[in-house]
Amino acid sequence: MDAARDRLQELHDLYALVHLLVDFLAGLTFTVGSVLFFWPATETPAIWLFVIGSVLFMAKPTVRLVHMLHDGRTRRSLERALSDEARSKLARFTPRARTLRM
Which keywords belong to this entry (predicted)? Predict the structure, then answer.
């Protein structure tokens, strides 16, 4: 049971990190693109950064959807190997958000 919980927590942590990185990169591309828009010579790179930032913002819900599907598939796989009592406990388990350790 603890191994199943640990596996679900690891998945949660991985997807939280991916979501954070995509969010950060989207914000960074928009910020740099905004600064580059001040000069006519750098308008084209600015436009490309806005496009890349937009794609990254669209990737965020995709990461969430993939996480939900992966979590469901992992739970079903883990539940097959557990007893009825452990299966019931796993169904109530919700991974907790963790703070990053530096």
Answer: Membrane, Transmembrane, Transmembrane helix
Q: Where are the alpha helices (DSSP H) in 1-102?
A: 2-36, 43-80, 84-92
User: Cβ contacts of residue 23 below 8 Å, gap of 6+?
Assistant: 56, 60
The answer to whether the beta carbons of residues 4 and 70 sit under 8 Å apart is no
- 76-97 confidence digits (pLDDT tens): 888 887 777 777 777 777 777 6
How does 4-42 read in b/e, with b if 16+ C-beta sit within 10 Å? beeebeebbeebbebbeebeeebeebbebbeebeeeeee
Determine phi and psi for 77, rounding to 5 degrees.
-65, -45
Q: How far, in Å, CA of 69 to CA of 35, rounded?
A: 38
Distance CA 67, CA 88 (A): 22
Q: How is 72-85 classified by DSSP, letter by letter? A: HHHHHHHHHTS-HH
